[in-house]
Write a structure and sequence with these properties.
This protein is of the alpha+beta class. It has a single domain, classed as Endonuclease/exonuclease/phosphatase (Deoxyribonuclease I, Chain A). It has 8 helices and 14 strands. The strands form 3 sheets. A 6-stranded mixed sheet has the order 3-4-2-1-14-13, with helices on one face.
């Protein structure tokens, strides 16, 4: 069965009235079957369920973690089966659900330390290797991809990141960009549905931060931090992902959303 999905980090739960109204209006006009969220701060289950119905989604779930206020969740036009909810070893959490025949691993990885993200991705890789059914991992992974290394080299991103302690800790290790968190996921058999061969030159770079709302100095350059990764079983269905960048979403969050569709 084909699906059209979206992943969106909505910056502290879009708690100010203007951004929330904009998010409400935008999602209502969208065609997605499933929308995964990061940073559902302040969104308890009843609130998400209420908005989901306004948007045309009969099913919803928010993972109200204990260790982090940065909740993950989703709305869906199809029933949601909760497989697992995991806090340790995650900075925020990992929500594993199944919609139709597809496993969704929705997460928001550590925003401050690439070595901690290595531990998080090792945990995810273990789940990925144990499942042969269609599966995807999506979220704000806060990590850089080796697929994008040509673009980052061309724009001298390592020099930019090395200028500030927090940026170095977030993205670098041993004086170099730490691509290992993403490489762990790729080595587990996942494919990056949003990577387009040659995109660093022939196509505009698919960065997901910053936006005009940028409130995070860690978004120090054009970076791709938001991903949809798919296993071999789902890859056979031809998923194609791209960052959504337009005037409307430019003012809703400090991240652009990423969409993915397959037949």
């Amino acid at each position: 069965m084909g699906m059209n999905i979206l992943q969106y980090n909505v910056l502290d739960g879009c708690q100010d009235e203007e951004r929330l109204a904009g998010l409400d209006s935008w999602i209502t006009s969208q065609p997605y079957d499933v929308i995964g969220f990061n940073e559902l701060n302040g969104w308890i289950q009843s609130k998400l369920a209420s908005y989901a119905l306004r948007w045309g989604y009969g099913y919803s779930y928010v993972y109200e973690t204990h260790r982090s206020k940065y909740y993950v969740g989703l709305v869906s036009k199809f029933p949601i089966e909760i497989i697992s909810r995991t806090e340790e070893p995650f900075h925020h959490g990992l929500l594993h659900v199944k919609v139709n025949d597809v496993h969704f691993l929705i997460t928001h990885l550590c925003p401050s330390d690439s070595l901690k993200r290595e531990r998080e991705t090792e945990y995810i890789a273990g789940i990925v290797r144990s499942i042969t059914e269609p599966l995807l991992v999506m979220g704000d992974l806060n990590t850089l991809s080796p697929h994008d290394e040509p673009f980052y080299m061309e724009c001298g991103i390592a020099h930019t990141l090395a200028q500030e302690d927090r940026l170095r800790k977030k993205f670098m290790h041993g004086g170099m960009i730490n691509y290992k968190p993403m490489q762990i996921l790729l080595d587990a058999g996942l494919s990056d549905a949003g990577h387009h061969s040659g995109q660093e030159r022939e196509l505009p770079f698919q960065y997901s931060v910053p936006t005009s709302v940028n409130q995070d100095h860690m978004h120090a350059a054009c970076l791709r931090l938001d991903y949809v990764l798919v296993n071999e079983s789902l890859r056979k269905r031809g998923p194609a992902a791209s960052i959504v960048r337009d005037a409307h979403v430019d003012g809703l969050s400090d991240h652009y959303p990423i969409r993915c569709e397959w037949s």
